[in-house]
Amino acid sequence: MSDKRGNGSPPRVMSTDRPLDALIPELASSRQIHASDLHPRVLEVALENDERGWVLACWRNPGSPEDLHKGVKAMVEATLLAELSQPPEEFAERRTFKSIRFFAFDDLGAHAEEALRPFGFQRASGNIDLNRHEGPLQALRDEASRVGATIGDAPDSIWIASVEGAEGRLGRNLDAIAMHLVSKSSDEIWGEDPGAPSKRLADQVSARFGERVKPDMDSFRTVELLLVQNAVGPVRWIHPVLYQAWCDLAGVVAHAQFGLAVDWALCDADDTGFYPPPLLRIRTDDGDVHLPIGLEMLRWAIMPLQPDEQPAPFSDWLEDQLKHLAE
Q1: CA 172, CA 168: separation in Å to the nearest integer?
Q2: For residue 150, which of 159, 139, 141, 158 has the smallest C-alpha distance?
Q3: What is the pLDDT of residues 212-249, one digit of tens each?
Q4: H-type helices in the chain, by residue range?
Q5: Among candidates 310, 287, 311, 283, which has minimal Cα distance to 297?
Q6: CA-CA distance, 325 to 62, in Å (whole number)?
Q7: Sign of dihedral through CA atoms 62, 65, 67, 70?
Q8: In sequence order, which residues have a C-beta less than 8 Å from that of residue 119 and are 6 or more positions away?
């Protein structure tokens, strides 16, 4: 199975020389974006009503719509994965992200909208009230000064992507489940206790929705129907502790239904404090295959849907991968 996300190929054996190439293939194929084009740091800023947002900056046009797309893709994916992969204790107090703002201090050209739309960005139109963006703008002025970038008083364009979780009764139930899971696993990092996060999720899904979650693809699809939204446009947010439990369930299904030998990567923080996304290692006769379950779940289930897009369920992709590995 394949679609425009480019995720239809079989899983690859991870390179020992360049392990991240298997996690984010674009690292191996795209040219290096110059540091002075896209600012390498993503800022976290306070918004109204105790909400938060992420801020990205482009000091100079990277050169082509393709380069702009690739550079922003890497930044957006890394930003979302960093938040989704935090240990549960980080969410004891609610962290509500509502937007990603992209400030361009150079003309991005006629095809910028096409390059940025896949990430949910829409250009702020009309007379932009810079006072509404003063906090992020001041932070970016400080960043520009720090890296030696020359920028004007105002950005050439501002792009905003909404981040929206499930709403209504479903949203309230999922939020309650998430807070329960946080309370039961506050100091646990992903991969430390394989099977435990999905077991806790299964118990809560049964209690709140009356759905029995078993270690099989049918139950994986049931969880997908509860967690994944079909709204077109925004980043379709899933609470990180639910995302991590669903990733854990993928490993349980791989072992229980497909008979695969599965190892869970212990996703502890690196020297910079970054927690890597969930990763499964499948041991086969041909060698170890690393399945970047966290990255793929982000791309299939969380990144924005486009108006003309009718993607297959993430569960279909996972089933294809596991069948291939079990052959």
Answers
A1: 6
A2: 141
A3: 999 999 999 999 999 999 999 999 999 999 999 999 99
A4: 20-23, 26-29, 65-84, 112-116, 134-147, 168-184, 196-209, 217-227, 240-256, 293-297, 314-326
A5: 311
A6: 39
A7: positive
A8: 72, 73, 76, 100, 161, 235, 303, 304
Contact indicator for 149, 39 with CB cutoff of 8 Å? yes
**Buried-exposed string 82-93: b where 16+ CB fall within 10 A, e elsewhere:** bbbbbbbeebee
Structure tokens at 203: 């118990």
The CA-CA-CA angle for residues 87, 242, 74, to 5°, reads 70
Both structure tokens of 294: 């966290």
pTM of the model: 0.87
Side-chain half-sphere exposure of 218, counting CA atoms within 13 A? 4
Backbone angles phi, psi at 165, to 5 degrees: -95, 180
- DSSP for 179-227, please give it: HHHHHHSTTPPTTSSTTHHHHHHHHHHHHHH-----SSHHHHHHHHHHH
Q: What is the pLDDT of residues 112-139, one digit of tens each?
A: 999 999 999 999 987 777 777 888 888 8
Please state, in angstroms and rounded to a whole number, the distance separating the CA atoms of residues 320 and 318: 5
In the three-class reduction of DSSP (H, G, I as helix; E, B as strand; rest coil), residue 292 is classed as coil
Count CB neighbours of 146 within 10 A. 10
| C-beta separation of 39 from 143 below 8 A | yes
HSE-CB at 200 with a 13 A cutoff on CA atoms is 23
Residue type, 231: A
Residues recorded for the chain = 327
Residue 217 CB neighbours (<10 A): 18
